[in-house]
Design a protein that fits this description.
Largest sheet: 2 strands, antiparallel
Radius of gyration: 26 Å
Oligomer: single chain
Order of helices and strands: HHHHHEEHEE
Strand order of the largest sheet: 1-2
Structural class: alpha+beta
Shape: elongated
């Protein structure tokens, strides 16, 4: 029967420290990748400083994220053989989180969030369920009128439509 001595317990816990550091670093990388998405959201006021920081991160986070994800993966592979099961429970998610964070820096989430509304459906004004306090973008052309609710426009930003037989683009 093995009895855990204080020295053995310390050695075992020291094996977890590098794995924990890699896991925390991968979470920091994920936070860096998610920061622009957190700041640049519809229907939320953004301060100029926060917006400037978020745009700077969007422009400059790709190479450092790839390098950091590669380093986390390489260090996790080096530590894997000597790691105990508790350390491995931190190393595996560290690699997955780091790779997902690095991949997410190459994807523009706003292209997926803000896609044009191609074929809008319309209701008569008396049947529309719009709060009287809601703002709309109103367009009139040749006796035809349409109103585009700002709440919907905030997610799509662009509506491709036809009014009085002519193609129009409404944007917010």
């Amino acid at each position: 029967m093995l009895i855990a001595t204080p020295a053995r317990t310390i050695r075992r816990s020291l094996k977890i420290v590098p794995a924990l550091c890699l896991f925390l670093t991968s979470l920091a990388l994920l936070a860096l990748a998610a920061y622009p998405m957190y700041v640049i959201r519809p229907f939320r006021e953004q301060s100029p400083a926060a917006l400037e920081h978020a745009l700077w991160v969007l422009l400059h986070d790709k190479p450092p994220s790839l390098i950091l994800a590669f380093l986390i993966t390489a260090l996790a592979l080096l530590l894997w053989r000597r790691a105990g099961w508790m350390a491995k429970m931190l190393l595996a998610p560290a690699v997955v989180v780091a790779l997902l964070a690095a991949a997410s820096t190459w994807i523009n989430p706003f292209e997926h969030m803000f896609h044009p509304l191609g074929e809008p459906k319309y209701l008569a004004a008396d049947r529309a369920a719009i709060d009287p306090k809601d703002m709309v973008i109103a367009v009139s052309l040749g006796g035809e009128s349409r109103a585009y609710p700002i709440r919907e426009m905030g997610y799509h930003h662009i509506v491709n439509d036809r009014l009085h037989g002519l193609p129009i683009v409404v944007t917010y």
